[in-house]
Fold this protein.
Amino acid sequence: MIRTFTNLIIAIFVVTCASFCGADTLTLSLEAPTLGSTKSAENSDTVKKPKESPKQKTVKVGRVGMVSAASASIYRAKSSTSGKFATVKSNTPLAIIKEEGEWYGVLMSNGQTGWIKKTFVKETDYELVAKKPLDRGAGTSRGGQVSRADTWLNDLVHTATQASVARYLYGGTNPATGMDCSAFVRMIFGRYNIKLPRTSREQALVGQSVPFDQLRPGDRLYFACRNPYIDHCGIYAGNGYFVHCSASRNGVGIDSLASDFFWRSLVVAKRS
């Protein structure tokens, strides 16, 4: 039975064949539970959570699936010998709009349909909706836009999602042997000549504070997950998702801010 929620609308990535978060990524929405309460930053910055969005008429266009294999290919036709649109990692959300035999048809960023084997996808109980009929000229949703002057941020996000870290290791700073969350964020920004402090608590004091309803790809996110102080961090990837190096992923992974755990733990966002 499909669960439906009538509260905050968050955006979901539609797979892009160029990069994880390209300037032309098409976005849809899914209905999700109300997110949690606010917290203030350790440096006393006050950051407001977004207010509940007013109800809007939506049209169901499909459902959401998650890649269940370590990696899987999305093809241009229902054949593994056809050209590939993309290779996607475990837990990548997909917009399923068709189902034919052993294949799911998923919406690509250019409006075309890609095909992935059902065995590599786990269906969720989320409905995928659009606020208006889809068209090839659809732009990015709130939280997903980056100005042309800041297109390097999309490249930074892509670098983060493609980064290889052997495993999560508290205190680790070497991707070949293991890293922790703050070392990962520091490494990614360091590749773009932006120097950050070593720990997440120190990093959270650097940069411009950003309201949570004005996040852009490349913003840094800081959480108090297990402690009353900041103890985790990641990089906002756009459309409600962030990339981080975590113990639960045992390395680099992508998670949603719609998760009650992460939303309740979110303390501050910083822009470099």
